[in-house]
Amino acid sequence: MSARARERPGQHDVAHPAWTLVMSVAASSLSFIDGSILNVALPAIRADTGAGAAEVQWVVNAYTLPLAALILLGGALGDHQGRRRWLVIGTVLFGIASLVCALAGSLQTLLAGRALQGVGAALLLPNSLALLNGAYSGEARGQAVGTWAAAGAISAAIAPLAGGWLVQQFGWPSIFYVNIPFVGVAIVIALTRVEEVSDPGSARLDLGGAALATLGLGAATYGLTLWSQTFALSTLAGGAIAAGLALLVAFGLYERRLGDKAMVPLSLFGNRCFTSLNLMTFLLYGAFGGAMLLIPFTLIEAGGYSPVEAGLALLPLSILIGGASRMMGKLAEKIGPRWPLTIGPIIVGIGLALASRLAESQSYWTHAFPAILVMSTGMALAVAPLTSTVLASVSRHQTGMASGLNSALSRLGGLIIVALLGAVLVAQGDALLRPFAMALRMMGVVAALGGVAAFFGLSGNWRHADSGTETV
């Protein structure tokens, strides 16, 4: 049997790459929408459930934790047993979890539903993109991935506005019902119009590593969440952090023992460029993810915005990032990725510092919009060349692993930053503004440090000789 196996059931004689594109957009939109729509609903969830700061943090992180920890395993399961199969399983789980969240009668049930959503996303996201990459080749593949990315940007742009309207008209549970049509479309197309693909030769079914990573990140995140509310290290918080660090050290040792069969081959980090780019990803996306939680939360809680107005306030962000990314990508092709990946995160840091000026009864156009404009410019400058540069820094046979790990680290950055925001989220009204401003300035520094990491990592000859990548 060949390393790359395909199954083509009788009903797939009408299969066409366009169906795979539609399916990939529908499936991946679940994650794009969910990540954007929830932030404008958090104040309503807090008010309705009586959630404290830690619970608000876990409404976000109960989803991000399994997504960050299991996304590489999700891709390996698809390689080994069939990408369409695991995409469908992940999409079904996401749909069931969305219903659990919508019908949740308690905060505990909501958190369980969010965790199940994270597991579903970890299964569907890597297999969605892998199926799309396999359905096209050459220039058509680039156009298809561009369409997929544009659809994600549009979904992320519309989601906060739609979410704000739904929260205002029907309450926060309604935001989870939005996922159901996308679930139905993705499953029907996958089962009737998309052929099965597997690549068992490249699969890394590292169940032990996945378990250690999940438990370690979970314990560390729990401890950081408890500590961040008062910055006093209680016995429980200290014990959880220590246990998490011990499990993560065990994860590193376990991965080193597995070598090239590991979920995360540690040999990749011997590459200076690859390591620095992933550090940049961790810092930049962590800071940006934290800001995308705090800005709408503060606009509603302290700025007097309605959920719809908060959604409208964020609308230019995704539009500007999506619209400028193509132009910034062409710029990076002409001058190389070093300066865009250095300057972009620094500009994001400046935008975050500008956003710290938000306060009650201010004009959107003089305070919020300039910050959003600057952040959008910086993100567009950095995001466009990032993936292609990461892939060009490793050998051809490592590109799938490199892409998956970079994606996981972008989620992990947000996971850690959100876990550290307890002191901000515990405040209400005007009392929220001072810790919000401090947090935004600190996240601005974190984002700028990502640019410094890229500057030093991309010095000299950074491209791998066997990358097979001509441009960045």
TrEMBL record:
<feature type="transmembrane region" description="Helical">
    <location>
        <begin position="275"/>
        <end position="298"/>
    </location>
</feature>
<dbReference type="GO" id="GO:0016020">
    <property type="term" value="C:membrane"/>
</dbReference>
<feature type="transmembrane region" description="Helical">
    <location>
        <begin position="148"/>
        <end position="168"/>
    </location>
</feature>
<keyword id="KW-0472">Membrane</keyword>
<dbReference type="InterPro" id="IPR036259">
    <property type="entry name" value="MFS_trans_sf"/>
</dbReference>
<dbReference type="InterPro" id="IPR020846">
    <property type="entry name" value="MFS_dom"/>
</dbReference>
<feature type="transmembrane region" description="Helical">
    <location>
        <begin position="310"/>
        <end position="329"/>
    </location>
</feature>
<feature type="transmembrane region" description="Helical">
    <location>
        <begin position="86"/>
        <end position="109"/>
    </location>
</feature>
<feature type="transmembrane region" description="Helical">
    <location>
        <begin position="115"/>
        <end position="136"/>
    </location>
</feature>
<feature type="transmembrane region" description="Helical">
    <location>
        <begin position="56"/>
        <end position="74"/>
    </location>
</feature>
<keyword id="KW-0812">Transmembrane</keyword>
<feature type="domain" description="Major facilitator superfamily (MFS) profile">
    <location>
        <begin position="20"/>
        <end position="462"/>
    </location>
</feature>
<feature type="transmembrane region" description="Helical">
    <location>
        <begin position="231"/>
        <end position="254"/>
    </location>
</feature>
<feature type="transmembrane region" description="Helical">
    <location>
        <begin position="341"/>
        <end position="359"/>
    </location>
</feature>
<dbReference type="Pfam" id="PF07690">
    <property type="entry name" value="MFS_1"/>
</dbReference>
<feature type="transmembrane region" description="Helical">
    <location>
        <begin position="21"/>
        <end position="44"/>
    </location>
</feature>
<feature type="transmembrane region" description="Helical">
    <location>
        <begin position="365"/>
        <end position="387"/>
    </location>
</feature>
<dbReference type="InterPro" id="IPR011701">
    <property type="entry name" value="MFS"/>
</dbReference>
<keyword id="KW-1133">Transmembrane helix</keyword>
<feature type="transmembrane region" description="Helical">
    <location>
        <begin position="439"/>
        <end position="458"/>
    </location>
</feature>
<feature type="transmembrane region" description="Helical">
    <location>
        <begin position="174"/>
        <end position="193"/>
    </location>
</feature>
<feature type="transmembrane region" description="Helical">
    <location>
        <begin position="408"/>
        <end position="427"/>
    </location>
</feature>
<protein>
    <submittedName>
        <fullName>MFS transporter</fullName>
    </submittedName>
</protein>
<feature type="transmembrane region" description="Helical">
    <location>
        <begin position="205"/>
        <end position="225"/>
    </location>
</feature>
<dbReference type="GO" id="GO:0022857">
    <property type="term" value="F:transmembrane transporter activity"/>
</dbReference>
